[in-house]
Write a structure and sequence with these properties.
This protein is of the alpha/beta class and about 400 residues long. The protein is built from 14 helices and 15 strands.
Length: about 400
Amino acid sequence: MQRRAVVTGLGLITPCGIGVEPFRQAIDQGRSGIGPIKCFDASNLQTRFAGEVRDFDPIGALGRKEARRMDRFQQFAMVGAELAMEDAGLSGPPADPSRGAVIIGSSVAGLAAAQEEHTRALARGPGAIHPFFILQVLSNMAPSYVSIRWGFRGLNLAPNSACATGAHAIGEAARRIRSGEIDVALAGGAEAPLCMMAIGGFNQLRALSTRNDDPEGACRPFDAARDGFVMSEGAAIVVVEELDHARNRGARIYGEVAGYGTSADAYHVTAPAPEHRGGRECMEAALRDAGLSPSEIDYVNAHAAGTPTGDPLEVEAFRAVFGHRAASIPMSSTKSMTGHMLAAAGAAEAAVCLLAMQSGRIPPTINLTDPDPKSGVDHVPLVSRPAQIRTAVSNSFGFGGTNATLVLRAL
């Protein structure tokens, strides 16, 4: 019998809320998590707003000693994994710990720590560098800390595929479950990029919105007035589990990771390929893997981050894959609310799809007041709407032309 991979736990730390229910409510109600940057002085930057995670207490969650050893992205990963395990009703690894995997990625990892320690070393000398600095900047330390905490002794992996990282992590976990390699995985992404180097660097790429007078309205996917993406921090970690393993312990199941597709544009370091051929091939591969046709998809959560180049090309790829049905399948972007959580985005958006199946509501694209007239697609503007969702597609496309698509299905 074919092994199947399902999601049984969600650990969400986002600008729109911490935990499943606060996050779900914010998305359903179309609430933005974007605001002026408060975690550092951003007054000399072109972009002075972002999606910060409010009310996150790493010391309360991890203890002072443990929290001080870690960069913020590692703290997010640890607490996100804790929330996911609790939500799944798990208290430890599988009966055979070697069949438990941790696949958690980050794209900029400890960049904030590197900036801070560089400044300290210049001012006070190399002896002032934090003893755990090297561990704070290594992306693999996020899954390593989680593996140590939970005793998962199987695959331990820190993928980095930029904005596609979280989706790749979930897809790779599902693939290994279906192949029989593992039974349970903690998978997703964690990111803490809010520092001068990251925002200043993306400003130099002209990638970020500079709508400083209207932070909540700055992320405008599919809108004619979009001017770039909004950077955010957070983590999204999910428990992916073999179906019979989950049923045998009476687990609550959010849905199945039914399909996973990947591709590379092999074209340009930041711009999608013409006609977004990589995105098209990626969606087609995920549908084939799921054994579904475009006519069987009820909702698409777009990668769309609000960039003038990326959004239209994703729509073009969507229309190429879904043909005449493209005009009738809702395709929204929840980055309009969360901002772009980079490596955590794909996992957070997979969670959005699963929660939409549970709640029976299609999440909106907020700030969509002047739709791009060339789109011709239902982007669910401004407010959510009731609908039965049995199958959903979630797209994640990263710098360098790396692409991942997940197909989620209700059981």
